Each structure stands twice: as structure tokens, then as C-alpha cells.
Amino acid sequence: METFARRFRCSCTPFLMSHAMQSLWMLAASFLFAVLAAAVKLGSPEVGTFSMIFYRGLFGVVMLFVWARATGKTLATPYIWSHFKRSGAGTVALAMWLYAITFLPLSTGMTLNYTSPIFMAAILVVAGLMHRRPVEWKLVASVLIGFVGVVEVLQPEVNARDWWPSLIGLGSGLLSAVAYIQIKELSELKEPEWRVVFYFSFFNLVFGLAGHLLFEPADTYTLKSTSCVIAVGLSACFAQVAMTRSFGAGNLLVSSVLSFSGIVFAAIIGAIVWGDAITIQSALGIAIIIFAGVCASLLTKRTSRQHKAGEALIQSAREMGEK
Predict the structure, then answer these.
(1) Residue 315 lies in a domain
(2) What pLDDT digit, counting tens, does each position of 214-239 carry?
(3) Residue 118 CB partners (closer than 8 Å, separation 6+)
(4) How many Cβ atoms from other residues are within 10 Å of residue 86's Cβ?
(5) Which of 100, 130, 102 is nearest to 115 (CA)?
(6) Full domain range(s) for residue 262
(7) Cα–Cα nearest to 215, from 42, 49, 40
(8) 13 and 19 in contact (C-beta within 8 Å)?
(9) Residue 2 lies in a domain
(10) pTM for the predicted model, two decimal places
């Protein structure tokens, strides 16, 4: 019994630590994405949206290229088609989201973009049922609860005449879910997250540059707008690395639920920077989001502990049988 307890502790500790790190990576990514959104909003009068996309890609490409050369790592990959699918889906999702928030109220556009965890849950449920794998229904419920919190905070409004941009916004959520699943597949191929982010940043660079040259006037660079550009570039690069590591390291549904925390961070930043009021309804939504994230994390830890305990028990039984 003592042997089993020792084996259980040794096997569970690293596993639970990895899940804790998965949660921390997504929380860090969500915070950085909220900082990115604030920087885009602050710099938007002088710097266009496509320019911001260009700079978020440029910073990522330059920083990761320099880091790879300095550490002797290679950007070459045998999985270029997988990178193309991930980067293409993510970039098109970004373009569709920009279209949606152009023709819809910002709160509605944000809410539609945050449907990606629901689409991801639906894809995983369908895949599980088709392949007769167990479905994590409690985590699916956590995703739905978290989305209720998002709706409470953002309070979207949809009019009958807005059906087309709303459909585009839903499409951005669907493609974002596809991109996140592609991240998981690249991780299972042992592709490092920095390389995944490099190719996605390159797609952003090309897309942003083309959009700026085709649709936007020249930017105006002041101390304020330049600072915002730097903040966008740095926060985007580190946020993408953290998000990629979270989605690649563990359960997709847990990372999806925790991604809702970006709304919480955005609400706090809005209150500090612009004095936006946090209403009782918004506070309720924030509480629901936090509750959903805690539930998802606890459910995963419990499942992981039971799984590792079963493995340790089987191994101990085998060793006793051999003796």
C-alpha cells in the first residue's frame, strides 16, 4: 500500500502541474490579448486596423526569427501544409471578425467571436460520438456556462437587418475553433509553439500589409500611436506563444473555457483606462465566467488524478504479480 501511495504521488504531481501550467498560459494569453485590444483602440485614430495587423505580424516574425538564429534553431518544417491550414484559418477568421465588428455593434461582434469555444465543443462532441470515444459532458457544460457569462458582460444586440454580418461573425468563431484544433494537431506532431506562431505571424504580416495598401489611408505616427504599435506587436507575439502552448499542452475545452477570461481582463482595463462602468449585470457575467473556469480546471484535475491513480494501481498489481 505504501508503494502504491508513493507511486501515486510521483505520477500525479507532474501531471497536475502540467494542467496548472496550461491554465496559467491561457490566463496570461487572455490578459495579453486584452492589452492588445486596448492598444489597438488607443492607437486607432492614427493607425489603421490593417496596419495594426501588419505590425502584430511583423513583430512576431522579426522577434522569432532573431531568436531562432541566436539559439541555432531552424524555421524549416516538414509540416508546412499543417502550418498553412492553421495560419490560413486563423487569418481568415481574423478578417471575418474585422468585417463583423465594422457593421455590427462592438459588443455583438465580440460575442460572436467568442462562440469559438462552443464550436470547438460541438466538433469534439461529434468526433467523440462518431469514433465512440467518451465525451466530457461536464466540460462541455462549463463552456456553455462561460458563454452565458460573456453574453451577460457584453450584452449584444442583433437586429433583423444585421443577419449577414452576424453570419460572418459566427463564421469567424467557427474558423477560430478550427485553427485551435490545428494547433493541437501540430503540438501532437511535436512542432514547437514558437514555430507555429512564426508562420501565423507571417500570414498576419502579408494580410495586414495587403489590406492597408488596398483599403486604408496613410497612418499618422506620434509618440502615442508609436507606443500603441509597439504594445500591439509585443503583446500579440507573447499572447500567441502563450495561447499556442496552452492549446497544445492539454485539454482543448479547458483552454477554451479559460479564454473567456479575456472578457474579464478587458472589462477591468476598460474601467481603469476609459472609466467604463462595470454594471451589476456585467459583474454577474464576470462571476459566471470565473465560475466556469474554476469548474473546468477542477474537473480536469479530478479526472487526471483518477486516471493516474488507476495507472499506478495497475502497475503496482503487475509488480506484485511478478513477485
Answers:
(1) no
(2) 999 999 999 999 999 999 999 999 99
(3) 143, 144, 147, 173
(4) 26
(5) 100
(6) 26-299
(7) 49
(8) no
(9) no
(10) 0.85
